[in-house]
Amino acid sequence: MEGFTAIGKLLVITGVVLVLLGLFLWGKIPFLGQLPGDIRIERDGYVIYFPITTMLLISALLTLISYLFRRR
After folding, report:
1. How far apart are CA 13 and CA 62, in angstroms?
2. Phi then psi for 31, rounded to 5 degrees?
3. Domains of the chain by residue range
4. What is the pTM of this model?
5. Fewer CB in a 10 Å sphere around the end CB: N or C, the chain?
């Protein structure tokens, strides 16, 4: 029964990560990319974008998921 618990946990975490990644790529998470600290420079003919705060948030979420997955 112990093995099924680990497999179930893996499937749930994988599902949540895939849903969040899908929403992010689809553009349906409205605050990502527009957080305070995300830098966007627009000039004639080009745009430079540094999503610093968004990347910190994603890193924190992935660290939390990794911690929960390793913590048996």
Report:
1. 10
2. -85, -20
3. 2-70
4. 0.56
5. N
